[in-house]
């Protein structure tokens, strides 16, 4: 399996995969020269420079479909990840595995994926300190439509173990509640639609939370 790491920065991910023998080769892509220089130094330091190809490019613009099997895009906002995929439509036309880690706007990324020809196969939650990180395992295909609440917190299935699911739901409820409070405090007519959307999403997530709790009994 060949992995392309988009927005690679220091190239820690592809170099670790190479050093562990998990993949035979990798592509490390970044929009700026500085991060690619750091990536080059990392590859040299760990003896992986002969197995990693550095690409100075925007998103996947310098990566060909036949070169890679897996595409990792981490540490960016969900809207940015969606834009990268939209500009590389071949990501939904073949058998590429996508590993996506949105740092914000997760609801926008889920909406894009489920409406534009991708399937979210699995959602993985991990925690470092007080921060919960989301990683999406995605492939090409037509997905069943997501409700508004599911766009915000993902689809849940009974019997699937996810120890961080409840804290993740609580975190999202808190974030949405604060956003609603802010909208109402600075109310403007053009924000009414967003306020309604947030309120409906909040109610839906609370219902998902109760469902999740009932499954754990």
Structure commentary:
It is a single chain. This protein has a domain at 152-217. The chain is 42% helix and 24% strand. It is built from seven helices and seven strands. Strand 2 (25-30), helix 2 (33-45) and strand 3 form a beta-alpha-beta unit. Helix 3 (78-86) runs parallel beside helix 4 (106-115) and helix 6 packs antiparallel against helix 7. The termini are far apart. The mean pLDDT is 95.
Labels describing this entry:
217 residues; alpha/beta; 7-stranded mixed beta sheet; 7 helices; 7 strands; 42% helix
> What average pLDDT do the residues reach?
95
Trace the largest sheet across and list its strands: 3-2-1-4-5-7-6
Q: What is Rg?
A: 19 Å
Structural class: alpha/beta
Shape: elongated
Query: Roughly what percent helix?
Result: 40-55%
Produce a short descriptive summary.
The chain has helices spanning 12-19, 33-45, 78-86, 106-115, 148-153, 165-185, 192-216, and strands at residues 2-6, 25-30, 52-56, 70-77, 97-104, 118-128, 131-140. By secondary structure, the protein is α/β, with parallel strands linked by helices.
Outline the fold blueprint:
Blueprint: E1 2-6, H1 12-19, E2 25-30, H2 33-45, E3 52-56, E4 70-77, H3 78-86, E5 97-104, H4 106-115, E6 118-128, E7 131-140, H5 148-153, H6 165-185, H7 192-216
Parallel strand pairs: 1-2, 1-4, 2-3, 4-5
Antiparallel strand pairs: 5-7, 6-7
């Amino acid at each position: 399996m060949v992995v392309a790491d988009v927005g690679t920065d220091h190239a820690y991910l592809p170099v670790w995969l190479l050093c562990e023998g998990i993949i035979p080769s990798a592509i490390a892509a970044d929009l700026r020269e500085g991060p690619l220089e750091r990536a080059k130094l990392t590859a040299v330091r760990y003896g992986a420079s002969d197995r990693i190809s550095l690409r100075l490019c925007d998103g996947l613009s310098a990566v060909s479909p036949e070169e890679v099997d897996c595409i990792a895009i981490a540490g960016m906002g969900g809207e940015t990840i969606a834009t990268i995929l939209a500009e590389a439509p071949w990501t939904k036309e073949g058998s590429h595995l996508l590993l996506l880690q949105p740092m914000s706007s997760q609801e926008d990324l889920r909406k894009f994926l489920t409406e534009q020809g991708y399937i979210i196969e699995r959602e993985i939650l991990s925690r470092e300190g007080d921060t919960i990180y989301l990683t999406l395992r995605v492939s090409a295909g037509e997905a069943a439509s997501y409700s508004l609440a599911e766009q915000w917190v993902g689809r849940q299935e009974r019997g699937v173990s996810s120890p961080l699911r409840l804290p993740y739901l609580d975190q999202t409820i808190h974030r949405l509640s604060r956003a609603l409070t802010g909208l109402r405090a600075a109310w403007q007519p053009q924000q009414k639609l967003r306020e309604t959307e947030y309120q409906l999403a909040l109610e839906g997530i609370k219902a998902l939370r109760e469902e999740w709790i009932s499954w754990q009994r």
